[in-house]
Amino acid sequence: MNNRLAKMRKERGWSQEQLSKKLGVSRQTIISIEKGHFDPSLPLAFRLADVFDSTIENIFQP
């Protein structure tokens, strides 16, 4: 699954560490999602959408 997570994070000036703390996950999880090696669980996808004030569909594309 493709995603815009890294782009959206950088637009806000957040580090991977800052985003991971906002979401309560490890920095490695953020790295894996950004690289497309890991698809987040549905609850995590909803938290990402909430943190970015966006929709899941805007962050992730099949």
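The above is record 1. Record 2 follows with the same two-line structure.
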Amino acid sequence: MNANQRRVAFATVIGTTVEWYDFFIYATAAGLVFSHLFFEPAGKDIALLISFASVGLSFLFRPLGAFLAGHYGDKIGRRAMLVLTLSLMGAATTLIGVLPTYETAGLWAPILLLLLRIIQGISAGGEWGGAVLMAVEHAEEGKRGRSGSYPQVGVPLGMLLASGMMALMTGVISPGDAFLEWGWRVPFLVSIILIAIGFFVRRSVDESPVFEEIAEHKAQTKVPILVLFKKHWPLVLIAALVFAGNNAAGYMTTGGFFQAYTTDPEGPIGLERTDVLIAVAFGAAVWLIVTLIAGVMADKIGRVRTYQIGFVVLAASLFPVFALVNSGSLGMLYLAFGLFSIGLGLTYGPQAALYSELFPASVRFSGVSISYAIGAILGGAFAPTIAQALVQATGGTTAVSVYLLVVVVLAFIAVSLIRDRRGIDLSFHNQAEQEVGALVFDKRAVEAQTQEVSK
């Protein structure tokens, strides 16, 4: 890895970490305090459902961010979109930290909170596509899986940082009532420092070599989104279903469900907030390590095979994980989150390389961003809300396990329809081959492979 590739790797990791730290502290706060501070007049159970729904609300606007970032990312470049999305996320997060609560501002408090969450969603929708393309398109030959896993680890790193920061506030700096009064604000305000660091780092990296080729030949697609849906809509749908399996399961922790479920003083477990947050941070650390391992596996045995192994592991863990959580033991909670994170990491590490190799260069930013955003809606958007509703309706978590199992099985089927293309040339000059053969039922793949052999 040369100096520029190391700089790109660092920039994608640090920027994505900061972006998702911002995103996840909202989800954590939604599970712990927002139902009380912003939605309490609705009543305890309904307030918690609304709080989780506000987490999902941002997902509905992620496609808008993906459309905008994809359009301009394919026209003016990957790097510019990375800087813009990071700045937008940071501004929204910092403002949440100074919002008045319902007690002081009435109905305006939840309205402003939801508006800022929407801005977070727009930013998150545009962030991921640019980060993974910078990593994958700069990667060395034969190491795209590993390079693509770097921005992926920004998600568990962001979760680790968010959980650690929240645990510091609840357990050391502002325990008890102080956390409700002012302590919850600090993690949001700290974001402005992290954003400044991420902004500086991202401004220092070179533009993607693939986009430089496109710009040099003045071959930018006028309306890449229209081309994407006209010619490649099956890829978008199948790629979205692949991500939905990982995202629905992952949002049990990243969306705040486990935190709320295990710390509810009137619930069946009733653990301390700080203890649970540290356990979540442990799970995030395992997720991070397995994600990196999965990136290497994707280069060795293929993206699709790594995914298939991951979905099998994830499916097999669903019922045991909830059984361990329901034991009420803090030690078993650590085991549950660690076990859960193995499947999450195996189905997250290969994603950047798999997605990047699905779409032709001219619409690649739009393709990966929109697929990711739609997958997030199908999978994680309202997964915490659905899980909470199922618990309230059935009095247990078995229905939650069944719900997640269905989504994971659908994702396994979807990834099995994708042809592994880990050796394909991603450059603009190879667009003709990139246009065909991404799916196993695309018969044009045979023609493309025959032409490649004859060269």
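Confidence is low (pLDDT under 50) at residues 448-455.
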